[in-house]
Task: structure prediction
Amino acid sequence: MSIIKIDMNSPEFQAELEKTVRFTDKVINQFNWEYNPEDMINEGVQMGLARNKMMYNKRFCPCFMVEEVDGKPRSVEDRICPCTPAIEKEIPTEGVCHCQIFCTPEYAAKKRIELGMEEVVHQHSRGLTKEECEVLVNNSELDSDELVSLLEARELGMVNFKLVDVREHMEWQMGHIKGADQLIPTSSFFNTLNESKLQKDENIIVYCHVGSRSAHVARILKDMGYTKIGNLTHGIVSYGGTIER
Result:
């Protein structure tokens, strides 16, 4: 297989993860930020930073694709944690960085309230008609409720599509959307894509952590002639359906 696999339980990775946690703690203190109240998001980003440090010797933001430029690894938009866009724009204006690990105290307080509300409020989607399924599955951007509905409809034989995770093998092991058909990591994208046997005329929905890598992958697939590509806009962190671990 072409998928790059790093053993999360290896002493080498655990040592790098400890260094990364100390690093993110230092960033929090330096900028007077807070961690996201959702521990799963923070753990996922910290593990991604540690993975990238081992693979590329730099803590590239795990939510962005890493490409080789002039023989050297380079993150899309030069995203190295803590990245300039987060410091200068995202956190001052939106309260949270793109990967969602770092946020302002105000954002964190609001998020804790929202999480408390979600514990007592649960929305049930109505079933889609076959016609609605066909329209929805051809959208270029999908939200959590739409993907949940499409997966339910697929189980009933009302619609066909492939759900592809473009995160890394380690992230897949930590948790992936129930119903995901394939893992095609961005670190070994082209080789794994060739092995995947995806058809250029079938409906394909891609997802990652927060939607950045998958959006980039969607553009690449379209350039390669894949005609029906959808993206889970805000990634697995926004997904309200079942996660398999």
Summary: The chain has a mean pLDDT of 91. DSSP finds nine helices and eleven strands in the chain. The domain at 130-244 is CATH 3.40.250.10 (Oxidized Rhodanese; domain 1).
